[in-house]
């Protein structure tokens, strides 16, 4: 049975992403097959984790997914691997607004030990009570080891390790401060690894550092068997029998568990690039425009006449057209970019979106849909965007509540077989 570990931290910014990437690459170089996963709804970190492991990463979201779904996905993801390595989100016990969905929740559910990554900069002996506090906060969460990050010197390392000995938690490594261990600047928010200059040198440096300063055999020995799924949970139904999916730098946010579920249900998936002015398959009975960064490619999308005509033809022949976040923006009449320039979009929904007056919208959602989506009425999802939508009175796609259960304004729009919203759907509620 596959074994796993969770990499967590007391807070965001401690270095757990860099450490996880370096561990994945270092173990891969040593012949260890590692299956990567990310806690929560984020699309960006899984892309980096998959690049480091050379194996697609999966999202495990303890707020939006049921316990059986999480166990089932973890089991599937770990098949054929020597180790499943799960990167946490924020701090170990940080959760959604209702207190649910933390990294600790996932670790406890999957019965996996936690390795804490602690930023040791500007502290010494105080690291021990910090670590002990996290280790003893919740009985069902086992902290099995610690990796110290940004250690200033050999003297600093000795002080830290001496202090940690009192906790009884093994120190698996002490990583010195290193200017190379920073993910290169992410230009214009285009954060996928293929768009980051210098990612491969960074990954090589991270792998070399983890291999030199972390006890990899001890880390592997700490891993525990994954909790088994008790029942098989059906995936969200495919959008159609033949689904054409936009996939390029403007439409890159796709959850692997959804695509895998659709394939398992017998759907045929094809992919096309709106940025390359490609059209969806002429035999597709559903077209999916996922999230991404259309606001960075407004002029290119506005000039993509073949793509627009192909999408319009699909809508007219009755194919289900569904857009999420960036895909929803592309379904509108126009997109106003950060500079205030308006770009004509597909015009399938009477919506104008704009990002020149940015306001961050972020949070989990429980949605109720009564439209043409072939999914249950109750869904879970996540919303994260800086743009806003102006639309006339249209039938909404979703009625929604936030994580606390408080009602939100209706989301998105649906006109016949064309629909979309800012929500990224994750699972059935």
TrEMBL record:
The keyword Nucleotide-binding applies. The record marks 424 as: Increases nucleophilicity of active site Cys. The keyword Metal-binding does not apply. Residues 242-426 form the CobB/CobQ-like glutamine amidotransferase domain. The active site is at 325 (nucleophile). InterPro entries: CbiA/CobB_synth, Class_I_gatase-like, CobQ/CobB/MinD/ParA_Nub-bd_dom, GATase_3, P-loop_NTPase. It catalyses: hydrogenobyrinate + 2 L-glutamine + 2 ATP + 2 H2O = hydrogenobyrinate a,c-diamide + 2 L-glutamate + 2 ADP + 2 phosphate + 2 H(+). One of its GO terms (molecular function) is ATP binding. Pathway: Cofactor biosynthesis; adenosylcobalamin biosynthesis; cob(II)yrinate a,c-diamide from precorrin-2 (aerobic route): step 9/10. The a and c carboxylates of hydrogenobyrinate are activated for nucleophilic attack via formation of a phosphorylated intermediate by ATP. CobB catalyzes first the amidation of the c-carboxylate, and then that of the a-carboxylate. PANTHER family: COBYRINATE A,C-DIAMIDE SYNTHASE. Catalyzes the ATP-dependent amidation of the two carboxylate groups at positions a and c of hydrogenobyrinate, using either L-glutamine or ammonia as the nitrogen source. Belongs to the CobB/CbiA family. Belongs to the CobB/CobQ family. CobQ subfamily. This is Hydrogenobyrinate a,c-diamide synthase. It comes from Devosia limi DSM 17137. The gene is cobB.
